[in-house]
Amino acid sequence: MFSVITGGEQPEDNEKEARGARFMLREGRGPMTIAIETEGLKKRFRGVNAVDGVDLSVPQGAIFGFLGPNGAGKTTTIRLLLGLLTPNRGRIALFGEDLRRNRIAALKSVGVAFETPAHYEHLTGRENLDITRRLLKLDKSEIDRVLATVELSHVADRHVRKYSLGMRHRLGLARALLGNPKLLIFDEPTNGLDPVGIREMRDFIKTLPDRTGATVFVSSHHLAEIEQMASHVAVIHLGKIVFQGAMDELRGLHAPRLEVGCSDEAQATALLGGGARKVESRNGRLIVELPTAEGAKARAASINRRLNDAGIDVHHLALAPWTLEELFLQLVGANPHLGQK
Amino acid sequence: MLASIRVELIKLKRSKIMLVALAGPALVALLFFSLQASGANLRAWPLYLFAGMTAWATFMLPLTATIIATLLAQLEHGPKTWAHLLALPVPKWRVFAAKAIVALGLIAAMSLLTGALLAFGGWLAGALNPENKLLDPAPFAALAETMVDPDDQAFGDLDVMLMVKEWRRVVAERLAYVYLSSFLLIAVQLWAAFRFRNFLIPMALGVGGGFFAIFAQASAYGVYFPWLMPFNTLGFMPENVEKALAYGLVGGIGMGLLMFVDMSRMQIK
Prior knowledge:
The complex is a heterodimer.
Chain A: H1 13-28, E1 34-45, E2 48-54, E3 57-59, E4 63-67, H2 74-81, E5 89-94, E6 97-98, H3 103-107, E7 110-113, H4 125-136, H5 141-149, H6 165-177, E8 183-187, H7 195-212, E9 215-220, H8 223-229, E10 232-237, E11 240-246, H9 247-253, E12 257-262, H10 265-272, E13 279-282, E14 285-289, H11 296-309, E15 314-320, H12 324-334
Parallel strand pairs in A: 4-9, 4-10, 7-8, 8-9
Antiparallel strand pairs in A: 1-2, 1-3, 1-5, 5-6, 10-11, 12-14, 12-15, 13-14
Chain B: H1 2-12, H2 17-37, H3 45-77, H4 82-86, H5 92-128, H6 141-147, H7 160-165, H8 167-181, H9 183-195, H10 200-216, H11 229-232, H12 238-264
Helix pairs in contact in B: 1-5, 2-3, 2-5, 3-5, 3-8, 3-9, 3-10, 5-8, 5-12, 8-12, 9-10, 9-12
């Protein structure tokens, strides 16, 4: 079952105690099943809550999509998770290690690639990796291993200033992979990439849990992108988590829609709009809401047949993706108080 | 800690910092070589070296310390690598301490280079034209002892006899004093350079500090002015030597520790 977090209110005292106890238990537990756990995380900038009571629970081994529009609080949350920002309230545990009390132990199992790949431009790719390798006290062979993983071995000794943006992103990934961390955090990893680069990056991230056993926490403002790679997802809006759960639960939340282009919109609307089915016209096409994702293709074929049988020519038929804005409207619409910062 | 220092040294590869580290001492040495070679004969080695060290302590050291601190910080500000560096499982203070040690190391090397290049320039001027050869005053020590009035103010408050007899030790000692007393200004410059992404802020602080140091010399409070401390250790006002050394060295270490604490708490947005 998906969870829509109501947010906004302060937890009651007994709830706080229960959370504290849960933290204590996790710290003393054997094999961890939660890679990232935050509770009541709050960060204010000049009186504005950039992150407002965020409770995250990222299962180990998942590709966890962290979805939200620009300015929703994704990067701030990530920087809180890495100890780069100090929360005003709340706690963070990475694999059970409390970040505030034991920052170094908590970050030992974390690799990170930031939104804008930041490297020392006057150094080569290899020298850039050597800097992190030395600080992590890893073997020299690690550099060649990660360079091969991201397919940058052939340009390892070239100055980074001569790298393309895609290569810089891949070097950032290589750096994150040094030492085989158990948790990989990627902040908007496809930003600025061309479509081919986006696809390569997405495919690469998708293979990481199987290849390395790592948990992947990836932020994005593209719903479709997260849908294609994540097993779990949290949606953040104005600093508050509005949804958190498995990807399938989010898919269940927004029914698939069929986009139909045909010769007679009015007749098609009358034909398809009977009963509870919602049909609306948008930009010269009909958007037909389907009840569930299951059997969507069969329903599309059936609609196509019905229109043809009625003598309506169909020249376009496609499953219409939901935009992030539409999803927010749906999620926030159910919880109007979430729209207030 | 060694790994952190090694990493900082890797970052210096092909950076402009090494150029600044070479250019500062070279410019001072070139200036005094030109003066000596063009006939403005400073006659004796201690006089020549002290003149060069004065230029180093008052102008070139504060300026190059400013530039080096700014460039060391810009290595991270420029490509925005602070976030990556401070998200590693390494104590944050260590990142800044490694940079401070590298800055101190570079300025120590520059101080030695200044002394060495000044000496080379003085020798070269004499080698090119024997008329400009600098003299070792030691053979004249006995003679000078009978001639120089200890209260003679012609050399300011410098102990002339000491300069004549043990000039090598005095020059080496004062060169070390100049360096050690610069710790406070180096710490201030590093702090400003780390704190502000805009390089103009630490640069303006350094240039402004150097400029005001000229006027601070006349002030009773000048001894507390970080940019004037290296000059004060040269001994033109003997009562200020120990104060400048103590304030510069101890103040620098204290300021450095405060900086590590503050920078470790820096919020990386």
